[in-house]
Specification:
- By secondary structure, the chain is α+β, with helices and mostly antiparallel strands.
- The protein has one domain: Cytidine Deaminase, domain 2 (3-Layer(aba) Sandwich), CATH 3.40.140.
- Helix content is about 25%, strand content about 20%.
- It has a five-stranded mixed beta sheet with strand order 2-1-3-4-5.
- The longest helix has 15 residues.
- The termini are far apart.
- About 35% of the residues are buried.
- Bound molecules: tetrahydrodeoxyuridine.
- The site of tetrahydrodeoxyuridine has 14 residues, from helix 2.
């Protein structure tokens, strides 16, 4: 099943590439940009943001997903990852888990400055995943503040 048409994919790639230019990565010097396509066609980008306390670093994919959720995204159709490298970069394990939360059927497309691309379904990258079903979550967040 096709997840994305060529024109939308180009927009996703351009969004991820631009996002990578904002990456804050003084420690690794490895900029990453990501773009998420929601079920409604919305596109949201994100970049990796590192920290002097290294473990607090957040990857581009997770920053894009969290920004998208804040804009109302509920389902991820596609995640594009861009790195200014010769070969494409697959998302890390933590990001695969976060993608699973909102896009168990998502397609992940990694692109770079070279001609190679990685294209895979999340289920191929994270088989037998742990997810929301195990915890029987409520659909809507409880809002107890008044
Ligand atoms: N990074 C990402 O942003 N996404 C990935 O999928 C892999 C790694 C970032 C985290 C860190 O800032 C740098 O790349 C090197 O690990």
């Amino acid at each position: 099943m096709m997840t994305v048409d060529d024109e939308t994919l180009q927009t996703l790639i351009e969004t991820a590439r631009r996002a990578s230019e904002a990456a804050y990565c003084p420690y690794s010097r490895f900029p990453v940009g990501a773009a998420v396509l929601g079920e409604d066609g919305a596109i949201v980008g994100g970049c990796n943001v590192e920290n002097a306390s290294y473990g607090l670093t957040v990857c581009a994919e997770r920053n894009a997903i969290f920004a998208a959720v804040a804009k109302g995204l509920t389902t991820i159709r596609v995640v594009v990852v861009f790195t200014p490298t010769e070969t494409p970069t697959a998302p890390c394990g933590a990001c695969r888990q976060v993608i699973h939360e909102f896009g168990p059927g998502a397609e992940i497309i990694s692109v770079c400055d070279g001609p190679d691309r990685l294209r895979a379904r999340l289920a191929e990258l994270l088989p037998v995943a742990f997810g929301p079903r195990a915890l029987d979550p409520v659909d809507e967040p409880k809002r107890t503040l008044s």
